[in-house]
Structures are given as C-alpha cells and as structure tokens.
## 1
Amino acid sequence: MPNACSLHIGLNKVDPNHYSGWNGQLYCCENDALFYSEMAEKAGITDRKLLLSSGSPNSEMPSSANLKKYLVHYQETLKSGDFLLITYSGHGGQIRDLNLDEPDEVDETWCLYDRQFVDDELWEHFSQFAKGVRILVIADSCHSESAVKVIDSQKDAEVEGLMAEIYNKMKLVQRFAPKEITFPTAQKHKEEYYAATHRPRVVKEDIPASILLMAACRDEEKACEWDGFGLFTSTLRKVLMTNKEIASYEDWHEKILQLIPKIQHPTIKAYGSGANLFLKERILQTGKTNSQFSFFDPAHHTAEPIAAENIIVDFGNSQATVKAGYEPASNIKRDEAAAAPIYLTKARDGSSPAWDSAYKEYFELKAAHPAVFVEPDIKSKYLKETPLSKSFGENSYMPGWPKPPNNLGIDEFIWHLDDQHSQLRQAAERVKKELKLSHDLDNVPDNMIRIAHIDTGYIPSHPATPKFILADAGTSFVNGEAGNKGTDLLRNRIKPLEQDGHGSATLAILAGNYIRKTDSYAGYEGFFGGIPFAKIVPIRICDTVYNAFNANDVARGIEYAVEMGCEVITMSMAGYPTRRVAQAVNKAYEAGVVMVTAAGNNWTRGISKLTPKAVMYPARFDRVIAACGVCYNEKPYDFAANEEEMKLRSEGGDTMQGNWGPERAMQTALAAYTPNLAWANNNPDHKYRFSRTGGGTSSATPQIAAAAALWILYNRQQLIDKKYRGTWKQAEAVRQALFRSGGIEYPGYKKYYGNGSLKASAALDISDEIFALALEPAEEASVSFLGIGKFVSQWFRTMPTKDGMASEVQADDERLQEMMSVEIMQVMYKDPALFDYLDTLDLDGADQDYFGRPAAMAKFKNAIKVSPYASATLKALLQ
C-alpha cells in the first residue's frame, strides 16, 4: 500500500537572537498547522509531524535542522505513488540571490525559528525525490508565489504603496518579514547561509517528482491573519466545509479565489514530472483509499458535515408534529395525535441557500396552513480570540488592557470578586450566612438553586469543575452525541487549544470549586466561582467556540433548562436573531427564569470586523440580560474608551473588544469584569491550570448569572410570599435589582454598560425597594421589532411563478413579511457592508422612522439586493 506522510510547520515567533532582536510576532500560524494536521488525518494520513514555535507537546521546534531531517527522511523512504503534504504558516522573507538563478536577484525564504530556509534549499531537496512521488505544498506566508518582485519601476512602486495603504487602514497582521531584518540577518550570519545561497540551480520542471504549490498570495501582496487563522487558510478551510465535492486541485483553487477577499490572490503552480496530471486529481488522494476526500469523513468523526442547513417549520399549537425527513413537506405523513408545534426538515435542494428552501416550503404550505412560519436552523459562529502564541511556561496578562496591580497578593487570582468590582465574594458570604451554609459547603441542601450552563460542556477532571455539578442531569445537543451528559469531548484534538474548554472556563467563573495553590497563580487557595454552592445543569450546544452552533440547539437548551427546574440560565455565546430562539426566551422568562447571555465581541483588525459592534442575540432581546464588559479600572471593555492605556499596546497585540449599543439595546444590559481575569486552562500539560488571560464578554456573563442566583436565594421566602416564584415577576424582580444597583462610576456608563457595572452585594441591599415596585413585564422577544417589519410590505409587490412559489405575493402577507424581516436582520449581522446600520442606528427608538425616508429606504434596499448573504428569493421579492 502506498505511503502517505505530512509535515506541518507553524511559527508564531522566531528567535530574536538570530533575527537582530526581531521576534516576528504572529498569532494564528500554529492554528493553521494544527488545522492542516487535522485535515491530513481526515485524509487518512497517520504519519503526521508537527513543528510548532511554542514547543508544545507532540511537536518539535520549527528549526532548519528539523525541516532538513524530515525532508531527507521523506526523500529516502517515499517511492512512486506515495504522497507527501507539507504546509508552512509563518513569515515569508527574502534575501539577496547569490547563485544568480532569480531574474529579480532575490531569493524567497521561510522564516524558521533559527534562520531563514531559502527556496533553493527546498527545491534541491525536492529534486532528490523519486519519480512518481506526489508532493503538495501549501504555504500561507508572504512571498509564497514562485518568485518575488523587486520594486524597480514607478508602476510597481505605486502598486506597493496602494497595498500598504490598504493593509494599514485595515490594521491587518501581515506575515511579512521586512527586508530591513532579513537582508542584514543573512549578511550577519553569512556562514550559516553560504551553503543555502550558493547551491546549483534546480530546473523545477525537470524534477522527477510531481509537485503542487498552493500559495497564499501573489508576490506583490502580503498574506494576512484573520478569523483565527491565516486569511488563505481560513478561506481554504471554509471551502472544505461548504463544498461536498471538490473536483480537483484546480477546482479547489478556483473556489478559494471566489471566496477570499480580493486583497489576496492565491496561486497554484505545478512542477516536475506528471505535475499537470497531479493538478487535475481529486484533492488529497493519499493512495490509501479510492474515495474522494471529504473533510467531514464520518470515519474520523471530529466534526459534523456542513451541508445545507435544516429549516424549522412552525405550524402553531393547533397543528401536529411532522417528523424530520428529506421529502417535500406536503408528502410527509402527519401524526395527528401529536401536539408539538415545530419540526425540522432538511433543505430539499442541497444546492440552494437555506432561506430559499424556507421560502419554498412556506409557499407550498401556506394555503393549507395560514399560520405557518418557516426559517432556517441558522448557524451562528461565536469566536473567542486567545493569545495562542504564548508558550506553555508563560502566564502574563494581555498587554495594554487594565490589569490588577502587583500588590494584591493572593487576591490577584480573584480580583473580579472583590468589593471594588463585582462584590460577588461579599454577596456570596451574605447568602451563605442567610442559609447557614458551612465554610466547606458540606451541608448544601438538595433543593439548592439550579443554574443552567449553556456552552461547549465541561471537563470533569479540571480542578475548577463545580462541587455541585448535576452530571446526570446534563445533556448535549451536538449532533451525534446521544448519551453525552454535557461533557466537553475535546473532539480528538491533536493538541488541546486554548479556545477548547471554553465551557469549563466560563463554568469555573460561575461556580468554580475549591482551588489549591498548586493549581492557581498568586498562591491563591479557596473557592473560585461566584456562587460555588449552586447546583449546575451542564448543557452542551457546540463543539468549540470556533464552531457554529444552531439556533434550534440554543432554543432546545433554553427549554431543557426550564424543564429541569433551573431558575437562572447563563450562555457565554452570541449569534444571529431567530424566531425559534425568541420563542424559547419567552417561555423561559414567563416561567420566571433569569437569562444572561454575552453581548458578543468584535475585532479591530481584519479584512472586516468579524461581527458588528452592536449587541448580538439572544442578548439583544429585552427579556435577556445582555452581558457587556467593564475593565479592572471601571472603564469600558472598548479600545476607544481606554485610549490612554492603549497607547502602550504593542503593534499586533490583542484585537478583541466587547460589543455594546445601540441605545435601545442597552436598556436591559449590565457590565461585568473582563479582560485579564483567571481563565481555567484545559490543557493538563500546561504549567498552570489557569491563565491570566480570561477575556471577552464570555467572562462577564457568568458573573452576572451568579449575582442573579444569589439574589434569588437571599430573597427566596419573599419571592414565595409574593407569589413571584415560577412567574415572569421573579425574573423581572431579579433584573431590576441588578439594574438599579449597578455601578455608575464611569460617566459614560449608559452608553457602554446600560445599567452600570455589576455590584452583587449592593443588589441585595435594595431587596425591599424591589419588592415595593409595581413590576411590568419586559417586551416580548420578537424577531421583527428592529424597525424593519413595518416597511417590508412596501418593498415587494408581485413575483412570477417559479419553483412552486405563488404567482402573486400579497402585500398584507404578515407571515411572509416576518420571514423577510428575520432574513434581513440576519443579513445585517453577517454583511460588513451593513454593520453601520446596526452599530449606529437605534431602529427601535430615536431612529425608528429612518426607513420612512425614501432615499434611506432605497439605499438600504439596494444594499440588501447586492449582498452576497441575501437569498435569491429575498432579492426577487425586493425587485
């Protein structure tokens, strides 16, 4: 059987001792390497090697000696028919061409940890491989095309200047080693580079092996980082995830070109004997299988296929359940004895967007079922940025953001709990005294309050796992995990990443167990969570925070929490608005459940912001507390608001900040403390079980949820006496207590925090005041309240008959208007061209008549019509 091997190189930094003091700081290259290794595994490659600059377990350093070692090993062992995959993610450099084989007199290089590896070296190794060996090289770095141009003309200078202006404006992290570093470095260490730069010329077309080079960009462009990976790798990854079939390497390259933002133009080139045939092969054919490669091969079960999204059909309570299936809805047998109103069915046309399938289903069903509503089971992606470049021995705070001073002693570990910040430690002690709980919590009653934790699950072995987690009550809504009780499986990772274990980290902030000195930093020992005596129901809705979570899974998680008797829900995730989730939020609120979800995060660097700056969903629903961020210094978790502190930030540092606004969304918002607080590290090989880099509104959310639970416990008898328990009045009483006690030390608190910063003990102090209020229910969660719905009817008139749609669309079709409103809102949250509408307009308040102006309405409608995120049906309806 043919052999298949892979080598994956990722450098987030280089040795400054070699590179004249420059460490080449990058952030996502190791992510690239780990992804490519996982991709190779799914292609059936078992012989995989990792060279990572962090020196993490299961990897070696990406040095020139290690690269040479493996290249020599492969050229000696691989034979005709064998397959080798080499991926490189790091800085691309250039040095002077001393053997005169480059027309531009410049050699391109890979910036390995100890020195630059010259292209001449790489190609000489390739020339030693046997005929018939297939070598695929994927390079996500600058200068990754076959040659590097020198700016030797006015036109080239103009292009370079224009591109530099674009990169600087977008504040992109670039994988570019400047000549000011690479040229002097090669000269300074010329003895090390002599053999590499004086090699005889290799004619690439005469190489016996077949070689394909897939490169991140053209010579005049720079490779950038985005979305947790290199932009090229991120796009390549997305193509794999969204295409069931990729016909060839040429087809793969073409699909990447269609999707990648146009500041980079990836290239593909074939060299050697039989290279043109290699170019036309189906991708990643290792010889171990005759089937076409699928990134989501069930045999490797580390991720679910991303095919056409499911659609959700709601008939109303009077209708029966329709079982899931692939047949058209009209052909599915109904169970007349059932009463549940919602069912899922696969989008029937796998080639059409999910919203087009939803509209098609609607037009087929509406005559017989006037109340029917159809929407996709939309996937939201909640990203958490982490300092993945840190080595395993480091544990420093995120630079630039406010952090606790050095003189706090052991309280440094729990600074967010102190009386100057969340007051959670003081509030918890007051509740323990009220309930007569012992210091070690060995007398917690069986009927202790339950909190639902909706996230990626938890890691039972972590020392911070709550003392009172209800393991048997846990559940998972991740597809294919029947029987999982809410544990984080870490999905067969080659190396656990910091974004894995997100659920365990947020769970620790909520109700973390007793922590020993050996597991903490700053010498802390004691209980860590805001409410360590609460009973926790773990609910897993997705694999990692880099993966998409389905709207229906969020809704089912909320409903499960209600069924399990939870009185508080915490969810450190955010996504797009859906009617299905709105229904679940209403159900929870009306049952008296306090729901706290993350407002979301946005990024200051990248091709575009990955999310809008506005509060996301479900946090934006009035019946949910939106958890925003406030820093150690009581200033907002926002770069602009911390301008003075941010002046000291190193270039290429942290780029994530918290979401807030518009004004209407902040009426039900509250801020808790982030970043730079203790974050439970999921990697048992790490020196520390906690890092100092907890951040994002993920960290803020469980603090507010803990405060809500403490208030309920402190006022349990009054809630029962007032007959609030089990009704919306309990949820609203808790919310008002937190809102009315919020800290307002920062003058702009209303803009960034809504109701101020969390002060848990102060909330207990105003309990009597809250019970004296005439409570009013919060506005019902709805997906058509953004000031859009009332204008949708003006935007469509008639449509021709097509694919089962009605020949005429009625302007008063309220269900269709609502469906269009939901899709439009989702498009606004996905399309960077429309983010300003969300970030700056208060469409429910002062700006609610914005679309009443013809010019504004026309401009917005045209933006939707040209958006790549809008369905063909919506665009047709808007004609």
## 2
Amino acid sequence: MTSWRREPLVPALLSVLIGVIASAEDHCASSALVSTCPECLSRGPACAWCYQEDFLDGAHASQRCDSAANLLRKGCSENMMANPQVRVEVNATLSSSQVAPRDVSLHLRPGAESSFVVEVQQLERYPVDLYYLVDVSASMQDNLDRLKSVGVALSHSMREYSSDFRVGFGSFVDKPVSPYINVHPSKIQNPCSDYEVQCRPAHGFIHVLRVTENVTELTRVIDQQRISGNMDTPEGTFDAMLQAVVCQKDIGWRPEAKHLLLVMTDQPSHLALDSKLAGIVVPHDGKCHLEGNTYVQTANMEHPTIGQLAEKLLENNIYSIFAVDQVQYKWYEDLVDLLPGTYLGRLLPKASNLKDLVVEAYKNLLSDVAVEVTMDSAHVQRFWVNVATVCPDGSSRAGSSRCSNVQPGQTVFFNVTVGMTSCPADDVDEDVLLTVQPVGFNESVAVRVKQTCGCDCGLAGRCHDNGESGSCGAADEEARLAGHRQCQAEGSGTVCSGRGSCVCGMCVCHHGNLGAVYGKFCELDDFSCPYQDGLLCGGRGQCVLGECRCQTGWTGESCGCPISAETCRSNDGILCSGHGRCVCGSCVCDEPQRSGRLCDKCPTCYSSCQTHWMCVNCHLSYGLGQGSSKCNRTCSPLVDYVDDITVQVGGADEPCLYPSTHRCHYRFQMGRSQGKGVPQLLISRHPDCLTSQRYFVTFLSVFLLTVVLGLGILAVLRILLRRRDWPNMPGRAETFDRNNKDLSFIPTANEKTITYRRDGPSDRPLEMHFQGQKIPLSEVWQ
C-alpha cells in the first residue's frame, strides 16, 4: 500500500502559483512593440501602464507596461497607473426564497473574466396554475368528452403536490383562412355540414376560462365546448401557445405560482413560414393580441418560430406539457430539446391517462433544475458565458446547466463565469444586463456588467489627475485617434477589419459562433474559407477576410493547386504534349477528343505514327542508312538508327510499328538518341529484326535448292525410261503387221445412217450413209 505525505503539497502549490504569477508579469513586459497604454492593457488583466512623466527618463515607452507590482518597484506612483480592477459586487439586500443572489454587479476589462455562484432551491408545495390548451378539431371529440370527467380528479391529485392549485381553459384549431379551411360560406359557419353535424367555426385561439380555483366552473366550460374542423392535417398549436404564454393578465398567471401549460392535440403543428401558403408574410411580433378573449391577428401574422416560442416560455416562467397522440409522439419528441422546461407524454385513447400524465409531468419538471443565461443580442459577440453545475448528490458537471432528480428542499449550485472580449465600438461605457433565469421559476438573477473601457492612453493621461482636462483635451483626442490608426491594416480604413473593437490601439476580436476570429487586425478566422481534405485552405495557407492566402508554391481558392508545372511535362520536356494547358498540376486538353494524363492519347486524331509513316517508308525502301540524301523532302526531322528504341527513348508511350515485306516489324518514335540533345526520328534495328531476315534468306535458299533437285531427278527418270523402250519402238523400215495381231483389235466397218431435215413440208428427209472404222484401244495409247 502506497502512502502519500502531505508536507510537500503546500510548497508545491506555492511554487506553481508563483510560477503562474511570474509568467503573467513576464507577459506584460515581454514585447518591445508595446508603446501605448491601450496596447499594454490589452495584453491581459495583470498588465498596468505608468503614465508618470518622469518615469525611467530616456527609456523606451514599452518599459511603462508591466505588472503593477513591478511598476511600483521601478518607481511609478500608484495613482499614476492605469490598472482597471476586475471585481464582483453582490447585492444581499434583496430577499429570495428560491434563487440567490438576486442582483450581481461585475466590473470587467477586455480580456478579463469573473465568476459568481447562483443557488437554486426547490421548495415544496408550490402554488400551481394549470392552463388547458385543447385542440377542438373534429378528431379530438373523444378526448374532449374525457376531459369533462378528468378535471375534478386531476385537481384532487394535484393537492398532494401544491398548496394552491388553479386551472384555466382555452381552445384552438387553425388559422381561419384558405387553404387551411374551406372558405365556402356554408363551410365557414359549420365546417361539419357534410356530416350533418353542427360544428363551431374554426379559430386560431379563444381564451375561454381565466385561471381559477373553481374546478366546477372548469367542468361547466368544458361541457359547453363543441368541436370544429379544418382541411389540412397540421393545426395552429404554436400560434395558440404563444398567445397563452404572453397574455399574462388575460390568462391570469400568478407571479408567485408555477405555471403549467397543458397542450392536448393529436396532430403536428404548423411552423414558421407555413403561413405563406395563405399569403401571410408578416412575422409574428411576439405580443398579445386578444380582443374579447379572441386572437384577432391570427389571419395577419405568421406562425411563431421555435426560437421565438422558446424565448417567451423562458421569459414568462412557463413549463409546457405536450399530451399528444401516439402517432404524433415522434414529431413532438424532436422539439423537446428546443423548448426549455418541456415534458412530452403519450395520450392514450379517449385521454384515459390524462390525470396520471399531468401529475407525472409536474413531478419530473420540478425535479429537473436548469438555468438559462440571456442578454441583449447587441452585446452577445463581446461576451462569453460558461456555466458549471454542482448537483445535490455532489456531482460536478462542467459545461452543463442542468441537474436531474432534485428533491424538494435540496439546493443546486451554478458557477457562472462571464468573460469580456472587447469594448463597444462606440466607446460608450454603459452597463450590459445579463439574466440568469432558472427554467420555470418566477425568480431570476440580474447581472449588471460594468465595462471598464476607458484608458489614459499616452502621457496625455496626466491631465486627468490635475484637473486640467480642458487644456489637454486635444492631446487626449489625438491619442485616441492614434490608437484607432494602429487598429487599421495598411491600406484599410476599417477598424479591426470590422470584426473587433479597438481598445487603446489594440484590436480585440469578436467572439463568433461559427469559429475563432484572430490576427493583429482580426483579419484571420477558421470558418469563412473553403476546406480541402478536411483542412482550412488545404493546410497550405491562412484564411484572411474570407480568402485563402497561400504559402509559397501553392495557389487556388483552397490552396490546392501547385504553381509548378513539372507534373504536366512529358519526358521530352513538352507541356501537356503540346495539346493542352497545365491547370492545378494537371493537364487540361485543348481538344475534347484528346485524353490521358499528358493529353497524349487521341484515338480519332491523325497520330504521330501516321505523321512519320512516309518518312520511315522512304528510308526503309532505300535501305537503312542509304536514304538520308533521298528522303529530305519527305522527312522534316532528323533520322537516326538505333538497336533498341526502348533503351534510347525510355518513354512510357509505345513505339510505332512498321511491317516490312520480309516480316521484320521495324519500330520508330520521336526521341533523343544517346549523346544527342536534339529530338530525332529514331528507327529501331533490333537484333530480332535481323534474325527474321536470316530466317527468310535461309528459307528461300532451301526452297530453290529443293526445286532444282526435283527437276533434275525428273529429267534423269525420263531419260532412263526412253532407253529401256528404244528397241521396240516402231519406226525406220518396219511396218505394222496386222496379221500378227489379235483379231479383237482389228478394226471393223461400221455403218450409220444420218438423216437431214429438208426445208419444204412435202419434201422427204434426205438420208446420207456414213462408213467408218473403230480404232483399237491399243492405238489410242500409242
């Protein structure tokens, strides 16, 4: 088991604290560029400026900027220092039962921050005001009938949790204009005439019953309600909700009570901009427009936005409970996180679980304690707020403003930190009001921020100490103008690029919701320039006033294009093969039919092979090495012969082929032969080509030899045959003796009658007789 000693802990903490203080002091005096009081104070809350005239005579003005302790040691009087203090003042005179403190004042200077603690205690048995806001369209008939019997039971159940429970009632349908309703005269007065049912006209919102403790009156009012109807599915829920929230006096909301707005509907709600379908384009002003308990501007103003409704719920300390149909539960579930202090419950058929739903919602809303910090939108960019929560169970949640499961009597602590980034542009040191509002509580904390933006810049500040401000007014004004000039970039007339405030010659950039704004003149940010590969300006530049300022060697909107064109050059040094432009490190071909990384491919173009074909044909026709003087007109480039064209050229493109008559495929290509820097037309004399020539000569020799030998053999055979038959050959004095022959070979006479046709019809055919001899078979072959 390891034991830890406590003795070294205190010295260690002291050493860390001393180091932090020393670091802050060094930061004030670390830059020789500080020459004015505003520049000094903008370096941090620990910095002070000495405007004592004889302070460190002859020293640089930057020596006047340091921590207050160091300036005192250097001889500066305390009353001659510009050193605004950051402090918190709490007004403890205001009593509170739930939220403390009720009033806080903060004194801040640019770059400083301050914190205070807000305590919120959950009390038991609050007075409760519950207002029923019911959709009375035709589909809600069963729920409306059920509500008549639930009202009394709900009042009895809520007495266990509230010392004073009161209820009110209002109804809504939709905006009574086309296309939300049928505007036929018969349909306006009775939307249900097609079903032979008498319905009431459609309406945006009607306040029926003011909040009262008389539950019997609630039952009577609900019993008198009749359904209405409209044409489209969504209802005017949010439009009616806003009126029930902001019409405090009409509804009867009590300042000391918890406010519950129970919304019952079975359909989604129209949203902002939906009203344009009816030609309504005037934005909602967020005010109450009840006349005679009827919302009279429903046909003239748009539906409120979600943000507008959330703001009014928080401002008027109202919890909202949505009791919706199962089918529409998902639609409303997506809105719960956008509306503070909201509970969503599923309403069973005929509202059978309404009583239990309201009781459960009330308990959940009270056990969930959260705060919201609001301020005037004109000052939001110059301040930042952070809230850390300490819940009753001891858990701490940094960056969270909510605790759950808080029981009555328990206290939740909220540590609120407010920081100031810059002074107002008009240099008016007016107080800025912040409100820390516990959601659903009728008490809040008012925080007044006193901006310490004044600074006796330069030696002119001494005039404020001796009362001679009149004689030094011009000097002060000159110092102020000089400080503003230091907040303008060269060639720009805008102070701090319009995105910051000039505090004594130093730009204090506004805190933006989209990202960080920084730079000497607030000219840099991390959100207004394009990203590439997940990096701002591709990680190769800075974002200056919405444009990427690229590093050396890069260009383009997002600094993604290299300036060098080497990636577009082929091995012969030609840019994009002479058929394109190098754009952002890649070739863009001039002709649409060309393609390839270097625009070197073109199936439909007159290729380089065809260009040099006649030249190669000329040289090969006269023999390699003999056509130089005879092919000048055909060949514009120089021609050289190499053994292996791939070794000489070394390019990625395939050489052109030239088939010769003796099956030798010559290869040629533009390139540079070894030892020569001038481009040439190279013709390959590869050993394979010579081998194929030898094969052809050998074959031709063997063929000719074979033919000659065959003819000789045939001649010899004929001579031999003639010598063998020489004695028996007929000839000289011998005659043929047909008596010695076989009788079968003796020719015999043969007669045949040939009839010729005459011309006359009465003439008889002329007959002629022909006699011939048959030739023996042996004579035919002799």
